[in-house]
Structures are given as C-alpha cells and as structure tokens.
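note to self — DONT lose this again. spent like an hour looking for the file last time. sequence + predicted structure for the chain T wanted, 379 res
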Amino acid sequence: MVALACIALTHCAAFGARPTGERLARAMRSPQWHHGRFENPQASWTDLTASYLRLFARSEPDTQPSVPLETVSPAFDTPPASGLAVTWFGHSSALLEIDGVNVLVDPLWSARASPIGWLGPSRWFIPPAKLDALPVDAVVISHDHYDHLDYGSILTLKGTRARFVVPLGVGAHLEHWGIPRERITELDWWESTRIGGLDVVATPARHASGRGLSKSNRTLWAGFAFIGSKHRAWYSGDTGFHDDLARIGERFGPFDVTLIESGQYDANWPDAHLGPELAVEAHRRVRGTALLPVHWGALQLAPHPWTEPIERVLVAAACHDVEVLALRPGERVEPTEHPPLERWWPNAAWRPASKAPVLGTKNGNAAERIALPPCTRSG
C-alpha cells in the first residue's frame, strides 16, 4: 500500500529501475545468479514468526539517543600526512582518503532511509559536512537498500565528477537518476577497477538487495577492498558471516583499516548482519589492523539499544587485542597513527553477548551456528 501510494503521489523515482538489456544479461552470466536472481553461496536462516511478533512487542529501552548527538565538522584542507585517513559520518557513510584517491562509501545524507520523505527510519543528527563540498573522486555503493543507496545523495553527487563503482545491476538505478553511463562501473565479486592509483575490488558478502515490494535480489551486494600504492582498506558492506572472509584476507590483506558493519542486528535474522562479535572475527579473518565499526550510531533499524554495538565490539576486540576506532560522526583520523579511543557516547543499558547472542548459521541451518573463538585476553 505504501509503495502504491508513493507511486501515485510522486511517481517514486526513488525506487529506481530494474536491470534490463545487456545489464541484465551480464547479471545473468554471474556465478551468483540462480533461478532468476542473485543468491548467496551459503543459505541464510530467518525466524519469520519471531520477527513479526517482535514488531508488536513492547520496544526495548534506549534504542535511540535521548539527547542530540555531538558531531564534528571535518576539514579536508590538507591531505593526510600518513597517506591514509578515514572520516565516519554515521551509519555506513565514510570518506576514505587513501594514497591520493578519495572514496566516499555508501553516502546517506537524506533525513530518512526511505523512498518517502515523511515515512521510514529517520536519522538522529544533521550530517556533519555538506555532501557536495567533500573531496570525492569515487563513490562506492555496496548494495541498493535505502540506507546505503540514498536517492537524495546520488542526486547531489550527480553534479560532481565522481565515478560510481557498484555491484552488478545497481547501475540501473544510477542511470535512471541521471548519472551518465560512462561514470558507472559495475562489478561482480572478485572483479576490480582502477581509479587513479587505487584498485577497487568487489568482494563477496552474504546479504540481499531490493528497493520495492517484488523482484528482490535482482541486483548484487558486495564488500570492497581498496588497494593503494602504500595502504589497503576493506569495507564489508552489509553481510552475514561467510566462508570467503579468510580468502579476502589472503588475496588482498593485510588491511591497515577495516570498516565493518557491527550494528542493526537481531537474533531472529542472524545471517543478514554480522553483529558485534562476528564483526570482530571478520576483521581478524580478513587480516585487519584497525577496526572502524560502522552501520550504527545514526538511525534505528533493529530493536537493540543504540550504544550496544560499540560496547560489544569493544568487549570482543579486547579479547583478541584488536584496535578499534570509535569515531564521533564527522571525526577524521589517520588509522596508522593509532589515535586514542575516546568514549563519546553516553552510558546506557545494553545487553552483553552472553544474554543476547547473535551467531549466524553455517549454511541456513539454525542448529549449526558459527562458533566464536575463545577469548585470548590474559588476566
């Protein structure tokens, strides 16, 4: 009903467009394409009954901030002295400055993660920088869900000279919104493109796609490795835990910094998102050095307390001596300089992993869960 109302009222350009023609033909040639859509090599498990019942249950406490969040206005007047910097804007939006190339990841500048301006999850703060003022050479989109492929942000970036690097099929949305085809590069898993001196490689993820009420998974989802002359970074995209993580690390690691989704999870759909503990384990599998937890701190998409992702990441990271970058929205740091961790978020109630475990399945079987390695922290 919402989709029909949106179409009737606004023609709903934000829904985008489906892949057709050669774009669809290329998608169909992908090893990930089966039975008329993209599929994960590992099956996923979801408890639909419990998920729906939770919609009508009493909401958890502290799922949103009680006071406005403090943000930082970043400055990009000088390039990073180390050659590598990362600025986090909340949720999964980040700017990577890596060996002279600036990559904007999953920009979400709209007030809501929704095709409709008055409905859907709303962000908790005004973006700490103007989107069209950022120094951007390339825009990388991990998949076409509304909290990652934001219609309003793409329209703003259309006026720049930035290239767009996206998984297979996602270019249909961009071209529908006026991005010239020559500025769009679509990649299957393990494929790469070069921007300046930076190689951008699409890496496997375990997720899904879609912007409407039908024909889901007609576009691909991915993470991305960024390989420069001196530095390397990896962005997980939205993903559950999967078997290719170690292979990513072997082929493209070690990474100076990883941006790994750590929030907006639920035990009823544990294969769609990593959750905090498996985010740390994914970081270890891909051979990361500093971990920047993303996909939290900007809007509510799951019923857990809003500070819980970062609190649980820190606990899991301490077990394995993993360095964590806990940035304020808008904060810019150079990961190889090992900036000190500052707890900028308030003390609020949150559930430890022992009381609210989120463990994905090995292959869609709820009885076969991924086992976390034992804590190696001494003392």
